[in-house]
Design a protein that fits this description.
- This protein has helices spanning 5-8, 14-22, 44-51, 61-64, 87-104, 133-140; strands at residues 23-29, 32-35, 66-71, 74-78, 111-118, 124-132.
- The protein is α+β, with helices and mostly antiparallel strands and 141 residues long.
- It has one domain (5-140).
- The protein has a six-stranded mixed beta sheet with strand order 2-1-3-4-5-6.
- Strand 1 (23-29) and strand 2 form a beta hairpin.
- The termini are far apart.
Length: 141
């Protein structure tokens, strides 16, 4: 068992690892966008630990950093082990959306989603759909 699985409440089975390989992680820490290498088979917590940003004993950054993924051409954002969103997280994310779109090579048709919740089978379902990237880029140009 991965040391972070209990905090996420998700067992890292083969299906989850396959999903991890199909998406690309990113985060915003200290007003800087960080983008993980593509095709990594692990969670943000493992990535953060490998970067030296957190440890098993000190992982408060997981509750502070706005982070997310690009999956199937769409962008997802949240914070914490429980994938929350709120007004503060939204505000931070949308300040950096244009930069994320550029650095991640997203299309203007990419969809923007915030937060996740678990369905009855434990699958993560997006909490909120905000619209397409183009809607937000028009306002920031």
């Amino acid at each position: 068992m991965d040391k972070f699985e209990k905090k996420y409440g998700i067992i890292e089975n083969e299906e989850i690892k396959k999903h991890h390989l199909s998406r690309r992680m990113w985060c915003i820490i200290d007003n800087k966008v960080h983008i993980a290498e593509p095709n990594l088979p692990y969670t943000h917590a493992v990535w953060f630990e490998k970067q030296g940003w957190i440890s098993e004993d000190n992982d408060k950054l997981m509750s502070i950093a706005v982070r997310g993924t690009v999956h199937e051409g769409n962008i997802y954002f949240y914070s914490g082990y429980d994938f929350i969103i709120n007004k503060e997280i939204e505000s931070i994310f949308f300040q950096y959306l244009k930069q994320l779109v550029s650095q991640l090579g997203l299309s203007s048709d990419a969809e923007v989603y915030g937060g996740f919740r678990k369905d009855l089978q434990g699958k993560l379902i997006p909490v909120k759909f905000y619209g397409k990237v183009e809607k937000f880029l028009e306002n920031s140009l």
